[in-house]
Amino acid sequence: MHDLNFNRHRRLRTSNAMRELVRENHITTSDLIYPLFVVEGEQVRTEVSSMPGVFQVSLDYLDQEISELEQLGIRSVLLFGIPKEKDEEGTQAYCETGIVQQSLKQIKANFPSMVTIADTCLCEYTSHGHCGLIHADGHVDNDKSLPLHVQTAISQAKAGADIIAPSSMMDGFVAAIRKGLDEAGFQQTPIMSYAVKYASAFYGPFRDAAESAPQFGDRKQYQMDPANRREAFREAASDVEQGADFLIVKPSLAYMDIIRDVKERHDLPMVAYNVSGEYSMVKAAAQNGWIDEKAIVLETLTAMKRAGADLIITYHAKDVANWIQQS
Ligand code: PBG
């Protein structure tokens, strides 16, 4: 045996301490962004049926929620609003008293160090559930929708959003929002662009949570075809050119190759969105006792970091923070 020449990789795996010493990627609570669904009304804390452990909360439960996150060491939240009234133009998305605007004011007043990220889109606010205005011929009108995105972003920045996160996949939304924010005096407000967003079946449970399913058709005319890779480079390059400060790739699990590719091409902070369907699959299997939830979640999120994610938007954030605190 002694004349064989081979490497002893197992030397570095002999104990937990040794493995920790050579571990290349880690999850920390400051990497995690927690999505929050804020709903109009009072005394609402409703669990989303397809997302166990995720709640729609009204403003009177918001402080409790944010304070729990702070105690867990989670420093940023991504806000989605669920208005009482929806209309064709998504008015509640850019209204000064909209639910997200009110949430932002409340969070910034009571928890000034919490980083607030506002999802900038119309789909939760439009009666038809699409991410922009509907043209007479039935398609989503890109250029007519842009000014409403700008108005939404400005109203969110005014209410105290630390970061604007446009997610509608309208062409030019970063350029339009950057210009709008600058002119309104928000030169310092960064844009976290959903640059590479696929038309994915993994968003199903989110649409229950945000009550934002399209009432006709689908989003394939604006979100990307899951079969495409080079298209992701074009999307990311456009957003970088237009002034994005962060790039999101979404979903994550089936798109690890894209996370890696975009990371290698661009130097902006890379964000992976571990979406609702990815969360629900894990929860369902865990509830059936088929998988070890903690091990699966930590393995998955660590793999996203290995793929190149600097930050991860995840519904698992609280669980992960709890596990980290306990370890
Ligand atoms: C809004 C938006 C969606 C998600 C984030 N922002 C839904 C969609 O595009 O249909 C999905 C998030 C998730 O599934 O967790 N446009």
From TrEMBL:
Pathway: Porphyrin-containing compound metabolism; protoporphyrin-IX biosynthesis; coproporphyrinogen-III from 5-aminolevulinate: step 1/4. This is Delta-aminolevulinic acid dehydratase. Its cofactor is Zn(2+). Pfam families: ALAD. It comes from Paraliobacillus ryukyuensis. It catalyses: 2 5-aminolevulinate = porphobilinogen + 2 H2O + H(+). Zn(2+) binds at C121, C123, C131. The active site is at K197, K250. 5-aminolevulinate 2 binds at S276, Y315.
